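Quick start: what a row looks like.
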Amino acid sequence: MKNRIAVQTKRRIRDALLTLLKEEQNLGMITIATLSDEAGISRRTFYRYYASKEEILTTYITSLINEYIVELKQSHPEKFEDLVVFFFNFWTQYADELSIFQKAGLFSIIVETSNKVLPDLYPTVGAPWQIASKNQQDIVYAIRYGIGGFWNVLSQWLAFDRENVSVPELSHMLLNAMNSAREK
């Protein structure tokens, strides 16, 4: 019972922050008092769960990344092309939230959190397209290369082409660009 209440309270705090970001679009202008009021909790309750507004964001992003990895493992992508399609299909279900981050100038938090969390999760996926190296440094650089590319493409799509380009078209464009680069 207590755990369920904690989960609900954290969700209310996160949803309140997203609502305020959507309205304000500036994390620095949102006070803990305003956030607590929006969530219907006291400031003391806020600090019971989070040390800062940024922690709400990184906790939320980390939970989405963990969900992404779980679903990625279940989908068993055999080819790198399958990963590209899976990535965009997964993250576009959160397009509204990601757009809020983007408009508030917080998209870099997604990339930074991905850079921190994914190196430890990468080896657990076990897909055939992964790099064969067991060297952690190789893995970190490969992940950062992929994260930078994928998130930059997704950011561009959210900002400019979300209404005009479908996810399959987006995946196709990226795969064509990657194949063209390989052929040269």
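That is the whole record. The first helix runs from residue 2 to 24. The chain has a mean pLDDT of 90.
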